[in-house]
Write a structure and sequence with these properties.
disordered N terminus, 2 domains, two-stranded antiparallel sheet
Length: 143
């Protein structure tokens, strides 16, 4: 019978063949036999997702005992402690935050594309609605 140790090592690590083959296998097993037992045990835990890769194969995952333990700790320790910042909960602050984020994104994207304007000038143009004066400001305005 396969023990839970074949899915993860005694320290809870989920090892891939590339690392497992360099570790001394349990007594009576070759590295290949150990990997096969590990692979079969993980395959039994496998859950497919409704997502497919480019060849049509489903994406899948397997939760180990160590992963379940970590999820349990998160459930216990985070209960009632997760909060959202005011930018998300206060409608007025949220709207300001969204507008500010959009302005920052427009400026950064344009600068990455070659626009040469200071953040201060670009923000002033976008906040006041002033028409762009040059090619760089037009790029920022378009973004």
């Amino acid at each position: 019978m396969l023990s839970s140790g074949v899915r993860a090592d005694d320290q809870g690590r989920y090892r891939h063949w590339d690392t497992l083959r360099h570790v001394t296998p349990p007594a009576g097993l070759t590295a290949e036999e150990w990997w096969l037992a590990t692979w079969l045990a993980r395959r039994a835990l496998r859950r497919e997702l409704p997502l497919r890769n480019m060849t049509g194969q489903p994406f899948a995952y397997a939760l180990t005992d160590a992963a379940y333990e970590m999820l349990h700790r998160i459930d216990q320790q985070a209960a009632g402690r997760l909060t959202a910042p005011e930018q998300v909960t206060n409608p007025h602050a949220r709207d300001r935050y969204v507008v500010s984020s959009l302005i920052e994104e427009a400026i950064t994207s344009s600068q990455l594309e070659g626009a040469s304007s200071t953040r201060q000038v670009a923000k002033e143009m976008l906040r006041t609605g002033r028409p762009p004066r040059d090619r760089s400001e037009r790029m920022i305005f378009a973004n």
